[in-house]
Amino acid sequence: MEVGAVAAMRYVKDGIRAAKLVMDHTKHTLLVGEQASAFAISMGLPGPTNLSSPESIEKWIKWKENHCQPNFWKNVAPVDSCGPYHSKETLSFSEDICSKPILMRTIESRSSHVDLHNHDTISMAVIDKMGHIAVGTSTNGATFKIPGRVGDGPIVGSSAYADDDVGACGATGDGDIMMRFLPCYQVVESMRLGMEPKRAADDAILRIARKFPDFVGAIFAINKNGVHAGACHGWTFQYSVRHSKNEDVEVFTVRP
């Protein structure tokens, strides 16, 4: 039950180390925004650092040229192709603006676009020789997210959860949907009640899929004895396992 997390942290590359600093050196659980960056730098992490890469800048330029599509807005109308955005119910436009279709474009869908090309979540669980379990998740967030958005990465019980008495879980996918279900907390509690990791992972994924049939996500589960399994929805998921008795990493493929 020791937890540390950071969210919306800019200018510092190592999010996991920053989260561990929160856990080890504060009585808080979650630090956010500019103050999270300041805390991490004050505790010795490198920064401030420009985290933009040539690839990410090129992707952003192309996105702007495509009128900032796709994006995560819904039920709004933009004043111009990239906003600002206003609620359709409260915004009234002049005839001059209404005559310009591109300015009145309405974004109706979620447009989450979570796939292997814009998703970079890493979730990992470790069991040491004494049986202690640690788990962590790091992510750059969803591509083209609305500024200020926090996904499920730093949300305890959503992207990761662990209990020495039971086991651990890690998750990846559409965090805006998955955090509503705390799937990793669900997995660990299901295993506590006697479910094997495979059944617990499947159950957590199905709970989400029943409400959101088009969501994309995946879970791995491992109990305190090292028995592991995965479950996914909307994509083919792979996770890797390394045991102290094996020098090589073994990759497991899970299909929806």
Mean pLDDT: 89
The general outline is globular
The portion of residues assigned to helices is: 25-40%
Distance from first to last alpha carbon: 32 Å
Strand content: 15-25%
Count every beta strand, where a strand is a DSSP E run of 2 or more residues. 12
- State the order of secondary-structure elements, H for helix, E for strand: EHEHHEEHEEEEHHHEEEE
Derived from helix and strand composition plus strand pairing, the structural class reads alpha+beta
Low-confidence stretches: 93-111
- Let me know the largest β-sheet: 4 strands, antiparallel
- Walk across the major sheet and give the strand order: 7-8-9-10
Continuous helix count? 7
Q: Indicate the radius of gyration in whole angstroms.
A: 21 Å
What is the structure about, briefly put?
With 256 residues, the protein is of the alpha+beta class. The chain is 26% helix and 23% strand. The strands form five sheets. Strands 7-8-9-10 form a four-stranded antiparallel β-sheet, with helices on one face. Strands 1-2 form a two-stranded parallel sheet.
Element layout with pairings:
Blueprint: E1 5-7, H1 15-25, E2 30-32, H2 33-42, H3 54-65, E3 76-78, E4 85-87, H4 95-98, E5 122-127, E6 133-138, E7 160-163, E8 167-173, H5 175-178, H6 183-192, H7 197-211, E9 217-223, E10 228-233, E11 237-241, E12 250-254
Parallel strand pairs: 1-2
Antiparallel strand pairs: 3-4, 5-6, 7-8, 8-9, 9-10, 11-12
Helix pairs in contact: 1-2, 6-7
